[in-house]
Structure prediction request, 253 residues.
Amino acid sequence: MDTYNPRVAARFYLPGFEGEGRQATLPPEETHHLVHVMRLAPGADVRVFNGRGREWRATVAAVSRTGATVEIGRPVEPTPECAVSIVLAQAVLKGDHLDAVIRDATMLGAAAVWPLLTAHTLVPARAAGDRALARWHRVAVASAKQCGRAVIPEIRPPSPLEAVLSAEPDAARLVLVEPAAADAAVSRVESLGAQARRHGAIVLVGPEGGWQPQETAAAIGAGFVPWRLGSATLRADAVAIPALAVLRYAWDA
Prediction:
């Protein structure tokens, strides 16, 4: 099996492919990317990955209005995944800010992103519906293609906070709180590493308006450890990235 080299060739998402057959047709969005963005022609060397951790060398065999066909070659050793399965439970944000969070969380190895509906979530219901879910998935795909991951993180349907609090009870559980809650919060998380490596982790990040006191209390009552990132108050769309980076470092993930 070849070792992955992100500089060798463009990468394309081929969902559901498990290595069967010698040829495969890319889905429409990937065909558009190959033809109109990358401007590749038959004979070009590419990579295809299935979003579940497998990747192959491939060669563009044909391009038509109905799709691009690739000739499948040898398997490629994909970029290693994070040693801890981390679910980022992020409150839905205004505008396209959650798109950026999903993009960066994908690059930082999140196993799943779970959009939250909280008391201060000021987003119309339609913005958290099926169209938004499909868009967030596309964002995750594009990010995985760029960063070299062969796994697409799961983008879960938006859910109320109560549903998230009752999920994955064995996981290491953290809720990001503001610096004002420093008396109750921890700044170091190494002690949760063993639990996280065995059962995964789930990290709660609040909305632009912050958590309501009763939401924080409910999270702590459900076993979430309050956690702060230093003394500065970070924007809601900026918290997840340093949080994931710190956790991967602290847990050697």
